[in-house]
Amino acid sequence: MTKLVEWLGGAGLFAGVWAYLFISTPVGNSSDFARHFVLFLPFYVLLAFAVISVSIIAWRVYTFNDCEEAAKELKQEIADAKADLIKKGFKLD
After folding, report:
1. In this predicted model, what pLDDT tens digit does every residue of 34-69 receive, in sequence order?
2. Which residues cross the membrane (predicted)?
3. How far apart are CA 19 and CA 16, in angstroms?
């Protein structure tokens, strides 16, 4: 099963449950809060998803490790590759 099918299945399940709750919530003064809550439930879920996603990205950026040794090694490999290409006749800018 691909990720697309998983996400579409989850979205369809959520939409079905939401539609059932929205249709089955009685109309009246005592249930206005419940009806409005169910009506805006997809917005609340989307907002929670966005906050969690931004929090995860911010935390991973904050805790990202610097790899100074790997950077030096990569620079040396680039210099070696440039020297090899120049030796073979390539012109580099």
Report:
1. 888 888 999 999 999 999 999 999 999 999 888 889
2. 7-25, 37-62
3. 5
